[in-house]
Backbone:
């Protein structure tokens, strides 16, 4: 599990990243929001094998407390290539084209 540093925000933020999941028996990539003093929330999930290319994803994080962390977690079988890269956090909501 890869946890972010603590993030302070008073409004929505756009989280974007690249991921690569290719292989015969890939597991699942989960992204969680970890609000301080509250249960973690599943923000995004990608199960199974994807194409042998880098994919991009983005999600608007609606911050319900002033302090949160984000976590990337890979679970399950891992026969192949898995990577994440270029994790970016920007103020405001994500637009429809990705970031």
Residues:
């Amino acid at each position: 599990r890869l946890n972010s540093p603590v993030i302070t925000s008073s409004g929505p933020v756009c989280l974007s990243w690249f991921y690569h999941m290719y292989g015969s028996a890939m597991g699942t990539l989960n992204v969680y929001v970890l609000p301080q003093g509250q249960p973690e929330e599943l923000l995004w999930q990608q199960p199974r094998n994807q194409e042998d290319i880098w994919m991009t994803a983005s999600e608007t994080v609606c911050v319900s407390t002033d302090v949160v962390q984000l976590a990337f977690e890979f679970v399950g079988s891992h026969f192949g290539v898995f990577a994440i890269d270029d994790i970016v956090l920007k103020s405001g909501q994500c637009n429809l084209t990705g970031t």
